[in-house]
Amino acid sequence: MSANSIRTEVITLRGLVQGVGFRPTVYRIAQRHGIKGRVRNMGGVLQVVCTGTADEIDAFVGAIVLRKPIMARIEGVEREVIGTTVFHDFSIAQSSAEEDEIAIVPADIAICDGCLAEFYDKDNPRYLHPFISCTNCGPRFSIMEELPYDRNTTTMDDFQMCDFCMGEYTEPASRRYHAQTVSCLSCGPMVEGKGSGFRIQDSGRSRAEGQGNWEGDVVGEAVRVIKGGGVVALKGGGGYYLVCSPFDEGAVRKLREIKKREQKPFAVMFRDLEQVREYCLVSEKEAGALEAPARPIVLLEEGQGKGQGLGARDQGAGGRECRGGILPPADLARDRDREAWQGEGVAFADGVCNTSRFVGAFLPSFGLQYLLLDALGPLVMTSANVSELPIITDDADMASMAEGEPEIAGTLMNRRRIATGLDDSIVRSVDGEIQLIRRSKGFVPTPVYVQGAEPLTRDVMIFAAGGHLKSALAVSRGAYSYLSRHIGDLDRVEAEAVYRETYERMTNFFGISPGLAVCDMHPRYYPTQFTESLGLRVLKVQHHQAHIASVMAEHGLRGPVIGVAFDGTGYGPDGAVWGGEVLICEDAVFERFSHLKYVDMVGGDGSMKEAWKSAVAWRLAAPAPPGQGEFDIDLTDVLAYAEEHGTLDRAESVTVETAIRSDANTIKTSSMGRLFDAVCALLGIHSENRYEGECAIMLENAAGHMNRPLGELARGFHLRVAEAVLEQCRKARDERHINTVCLSGGVFQNKLLTEEALRLLRAEGFLVYYNIHVPPNDGGLALGQNYIGMAQIINEQM
Q1: How confident is residue 3, by pLDDT bands cut at 50, 70 and 90?
Q2: Of 330-334, 406-410, 686-690, 728-732, which range is least confident?
Q3: Which tops the pLDDT comparison, 204 or 276?
Q4: Looking at the structure, do residues 292 and 205 belong to the same domain, yes or no?
């Protein structure tokens, strides 16, 4: 066949190619190039069938790759000549689910600049439409019921498009050409008000009649209630929020009572980046994360400036009171890589962030949030659920919660169903990178491609059960691992039910029938029990090996690597509670090289909330030298401070000490997380974890106060832990000739420790890797388990 002869090709594009406006883009490119044929979604890929000469099709494909939609990601282009088929035009054909392909599904996307401009344009038909969207933005996975991505496979199928929307949907020149979420005030989901605290309860359609604003409507009612110190429920794309003013201590207290959440900080939504800078320090990288289409919550340092920032109070020339102690003037420049604080924001209520020095800041994702922020300024916006339970997605469940909670004045809801609940993702800046702490909305279900797993064909499917805390599971096909939404802690039957539903949803959605299930070794963890109930071949993986494997999976490492896994708890094969581990990991196997010395702890896993118990245990164990394969952290100065200030002078301490000495109900642990708790209590900073990691957070806070003895002790402890990491890695390199280090586990959410350990290791020539795209905490375990399962199968096939 000559280059100038006419032929037909099937072009298959793989990657993030559905739900991002790719079909309209291909259509427009075909029109410009005079190409005849069709484009359609097929399974998880985009298929183009076109007729032309080889040169014409080459130019056409080149233009597609060059001009792909902003949100698209092409991971492969396959071309096959099939002969000649006569096409008279180019069209977007009906989608097909027949193809058995690896799907890359789009995550939910925040409102784009084009839609936001129309939202505020009084002459636009979608002026102030709360759910305005186009091919470049809007919900995706949260409304998808099955593949491929089309209107009739989403919950938007419940809404029949009006003539105006249908016109744009079928107009190739429109930004809403084949935009599956297209709607307007006349035909789309509308804001409805419910609740005894709302004087007006209607469908919000007065805007469609040209009123021009939301005063006197249900949105205006919500504004009135929040201004008056009330709490309102709001239905978002991935679930319900509870909303109140961050400036009203009474409103924040009501919110804590509703959620039964005593101390854990609340996230605050801001109108835009400029408003964030009035309250927080924001680096260039953090600004990019805030404005990214995923719209994650970004953990930012509170602002330091004329506005005094977030509940701080003047303390004269000697310093400024803040959470955790007196912050000296010298500390105002402790992060040199950040931009200068610019704002003079009014202080938030102390109850918003409580003991945390971070503000969980994020920006709006859709129009209704902008309406509220325009009227009220920054808002506390937290998931509607009782603390530690999954986010509420069902309208009836939200109505039931509101009926039982008189402090919820009303609910702003809509009739668009949520197919998959999604909490807001959480990120933070560390080592100049943006690291995920919770992976959910905006990132799920985009898969992680595991380099090194290429030998696996797409018929190799694995289920990875994840952890019991911060739970997220994963399913994989070939080298692609799909991590689920953040489910949360599995200590309640309601959370267990969501876990089971998530498994069914993920396997059905992606057409995955696992042949292997990988889970944690802990026999009492719910994911382990669930895995054993499936009747599949089961591979049980040690908790800390999975942590290190999650780093290896992200960075395409086969090993051997030195893995440093520090966290609060993990089941050890010897029956002890592990958590301060140095491992040698390679493919599917690991060896324990060394560990933090064992101490006897009363109560096992249950002691994690009571930091003072850890303090008693470490006070008793401190004089004993480390045994074979153990390392120690010098606590001499910390213990001297505790003795001088009587931080453990309590009757319960004597009881616990007696129990440990008599070996009554004790278990050995090497947990680094419990050591951080112990030091926090020994220094008298705090004695109990009211939420996970609180004592470690407060200890890191204290380490920033270098003009005070307490701050010096706290910082000195962090540095000694980092030095212990270096020492153990040196020993492993000397003995095993390994120069690559992986850091993971919840303790490495500590910014001071992580960055100091990185500095020390890099200075001695180590290649160091850590989690970026999945959390270092237990939310990333499923990826590590998936990796180990993949490696196991590859080894068996060799």
Answers
A1: low
A2: 330-334
A3: 276
A4: yes
SS (H, E, C) 533-581: CCCCEEEEECHHHHHHHHHHHHHCCCCCEEEEEEEEEEECCCCCEEEEE
* Count of domains observed in the chain: 4
Residue 169 located in a structural domain: no
Structure token digits, residue 488: 């949360």
- Cα separation, 514 vs 511, in Å, equals 10
Distance, in Å, from the CA atom of 361 to the CA atom of 365, rounded to the nearest integer, reads 13
Strand, coil or helix: what is 6?
Answer: coil
What the block records as the tokens of 235 is: 């239905």
Degrees, nearest 5: CA angle 258-525-627? 115
Rounded Cα gap, residues 308 and 341, in angstroms: 11
The reply to whether 500 and 614 lie within a common domain is no
| SS3 label, residue 42 | strand
Rounded Cα gap, residues 436 and 426, in angstroms: 6
Q: Are residues 376 and 502 in the same domain?
A: no
The label of the residue with tokens 């249900």 reads 218
Q: How many residues comprise the chain?
A: 798
Examine the domain organization and report whether 537 and 637 are in the same domain. Answer: no
553 bridge partner residues: none
Residue 346's DSSP bridge partners are none
CA atoms of 302 and 214, how far apart (whole Å): 33
pTM confidence score: 0.87
Q: Is the per-residue pLDDT at 323 higher than 70?
A: no
Q: Is the pLDDT of residue 586 over 70?
A: yes
CATH of the domain at 695: 3.30.420.40
pLDDT at 20: 83
Range of the domain at 458: 437-557+781-797
- Contact partners, residue 404, CB within 8 Å, separation at least 6: none
Query: Does residue 148 contact residue 44 with C-beta atoms inside 8 Å?
Result: yes
Count CA atoms closer than 13 A to 765's CA, side-chain side: 6
Task: Give me the mean pLDDT over the 278-307 stretch.
Answer: 87
Taking each helix axis as running N to C, give the angle between helix 709-736 and helix 672-682, from 0 to 180 degrees, rounded to the nearest 10.
160
335-339 long-range Cβ contacts below 8 angstroms, 24+ apart: 335/281, 335/283, 335/301, 337/283, 337/432, 338/281, 338/282, 338/283, 338/301, 339/277, 339/281, 339/282, 339/283, 339/284
Q: What is the full DSSP assignment across 350-407?
A: TTTTTT-SEEEEE---SHHHHHHHHHH-SEEEEESSSTTSPPP--HHHHHHHHHH-TT
Q: Name 286's Cβ contacts closer than 8 Å, sequence gap at least 6.
A: 298, 300, 429, 434
Q: Is the pLDDT of residue 712 over 70?
A: yes
In tens, the pLDDT along 520-553 reads 999 999 999 999 999 999 999 999 999 999 999 9
Q: Is 260 exposed, middle or buried (0-12, 13-18, 19+ CB in 10 A)?
A: exposed
Question: Closest by alpha carbon to 128, among 293, 365, 368, 413?
Answer: 368
Asked if the peptide bond before residue 265 counts as cis, ω within 30 degrees of 0, the response is no
345 vs 701, which has greater pLDDT?
A: 701
605 and 462 in a common domain: no
pLDDT computed for residue 331 by the predictor:
30
Q: List pLDDT tens digits, range 170-223.
A: 988 899 988 999 999 999 899 999 998 888 776 554 443 444 455 568 999 999
Q: Which two tokens stand for residue 617?
A: 């245990």
480 phi/psi in degrees, rounded to 5:
-100, 125
Which of 57, 92, 127 terminates a domain? The answer is: 92
Q: What amino acid is encoded at 267 in this protein?
A: A
d(CA 164, CA 30) in angstroms, rounded, equals: 26
pLDDT tops 50 at residue 320: no
Based on the domain organization, do 457 and 406 belong to the same domain? no
